[in-house]
Amino acid sequence: MKNTTKKKQGGDTHQTADKAHPVLTTNQGIHVSDNQNSLKAGQRGPVLLEDFVLREKIFHFDHERIPERIVHARGSAAHGYFELYESLSDITKADIFQRAGEKTPLFTRISTVAGGAGSVDTPRDVRGFAVKFYTKEGNWDLVGNNIPVFFIQDAIKFPDLIHAVKMESDKGYPQAASAHDTFWDFVSLMPETSHMIMWAMSDRAIPRSLRMIEGFGIHTFRLVNAKGKSTFVKFHWKPKLGLQSTLWDEALKLQAADNDFHRRDLYEAIDRGDFPEWELGLQLFDQKTADALPYDVLDSTKLIPEEVIPVRIVGRMVLDRNPDNFFAETEQVAYCPANIVPGVDFTNDPLLQGRLFSYLDTQKSRLGTANFHQIPINAPKCPMMNLQRDGMMQTEVPKGRANYEPNSLDVAGEEAGPRECPVTGFTSFQGRPENEEQGDKLRIRPESFADHYSQARLFFNSQTENEQAHLASALVFELSKVTLEHVPPRVIANLRNISEDLAARVAKGLGIPLPAKAPSSKPVQDLETSAALSIQKNMKETLQGRCVGILITDGTDAAAIDKLKKDIKKAGGTSKIVAPRLNGIVLSDKTKIKADGQLAGTPSQLFDAVAVILSREGADMLAKEAAAIQWVMDAFGHLKAIGYTKEAMPLLDKANVVKDEGVKELGKQFITAATKRFWEREPSVRNLA
Length: 689
Ligand code: HDD
Known about the structure:
Number of helices: 20
Shape: globular
Helix content: 25-40%
Number of strands: 18
Function: Decomposes hydrogen peroxide into water and oxygen; serves to protect cells from the toxic effects of hydrogen peroxide.
Bound molecules: CIS-heme D hydroxychlorin gamma-spirolactone
CATH class of the largest domain: Mainly Beta
Oligomer: single chain
Protein name: Catalase
CATH architecture of the largest domain: Beta Barrel
Strand content: 5-15%
Organism: Panacibacter ginsenosidivorans
Family: Belongs to the catalase family. HPII subfamily.
């Protein structure tokens, strides 16, 4: 289906005269004689309406865009597979979890939430993490985020939340940013957002790479085995490259340096065979355990710390193929939390229940037809047949007249169509204890959802000192953009329930008095902290998946570049050469090389660590070049390792680089340093809240 330029059957008639290319045709298959000029009445005459080649081309172009997703409009995706490590047949009958070593194809899309399809990759935002498994029993979509909790508890608040965070409806800005009036107004009035706000203001929301984020299914789901026994489950994706984020100043500068930083990073990694990998982890627990927890497992603003219920690793996801076509695949893919397979089931989480309605509905309008499941990226890879018929853009051609059942057409020798199967068919789990509590119809939040602060406090207290400072500074930044003066005090009044220290730091950062504490409907508990919630405690000291920028210019020592590149490669990293000129850099041995990036367009925030290899003349020259000074200064300010040759010192001095643990002469020590960030440098380069 994909190859629209394929040859017609029956010989060579679809080949151009030079035989090098297939013949260009209209959508009706008519050969096009001239794709450069429209049909005119005479040489300089008007264009003729009868030019069907022109009309078809322009008309098709006019309709190329479809409505973007109302949320998660900007995303990047890849094909891959899931490989199971061990059979889970005792826990679930889902076919995908039966046989160790078996691989299931999948398509994963990672997205920002608030920005439009053309917005940048690196705003402060939650990242969507959606996986479509093409299992033998049909498609299973695990549609999660990179944060294990959500802003709200009930789906009825979702349109309000999204309206508040998206660009303000009168002004049309800000794009892809939560730092504005309406978002914080909403947050300040909705204490249930407290926990998620801690995550969204933490470094989780400014990831270094899509390959270095976790994914979470968020809701409590169920796994059901062949005997009908149910086990609660929370799904986790753990990146093999470890967790890593950027600093806020770095993220801001990345927006200017490369709008497509994450998309490019994912694409290039897969393209060079450096396939991103995540392990699938399960938190499994029974009803008794759920009942004993001090929070409700049906409440999506709560997580279960890994220290309380460990994450059992059961398989891995490898993304090993870029999409062939962005629109056909990444744009048209339609995930839906309601797509589950036998052996997986929902719970009564009211946020999940609302989601089960929303996705199919939005997709019918976004993709314009009830038949969007026929689009190749959405179609299951197992047999699919039913009696649904017709509708816009129907591409199947069902034979016969069996579009209803029961029918007895087979008695007359006709095709009778498919029938239900009680054995393999999906059956809903029976006996949810939550259902037994049912009584009157109520618009109410359960009392067990009422503690909005204890887990927010748990998150804040689980962060390192740096991370807490980043979080406080992020709140100061965001609230500084709020023009409604009554809103920041209300936010801080809520923060006082989470941490008095945090509230005081934010008030000080904004220069306003500490407001009275907001009332809390439940006493706030001091829950045991969880190291798993910190990024810094879970970063991997590695060059794998990381890139070192090497700044050179004319006269740079050729052997030094060569050795450094080899050392980086040996450590599993990649490197890119940056120079003031792209072509014809003349090295010490008079060889000429081409750089990977020109200095002005390749700032150091694009790299995880940097090296500066210069001749003395080169260093003196670059010490007068603002872009070079900024390059080094930013690397230092963003707490990165800096490797240097002695001759490069004039540039480092000009950039005020202080020789600390992260600043090393080129060699082994630099390679080790390049695997880390130097948090201890931060107080010397930045005043944090
Ligand atoms: Fe949603 C898209 C994740 C709550 C309604 N959502 C969407 C995507 C992700 C999530 C990753 C993008 C999928 C893709 O790449 O195409 N959404 C979540 C998570 C939630 C959540 C983790 C809470 C735990 N969402 C949520 C609620 C509603 C929606 C409560 C509505 C009641 N979400 C949508 C949607 C979208 C969507 C409007 C937009 C485009 C689409 O579905 O296909 O239906």
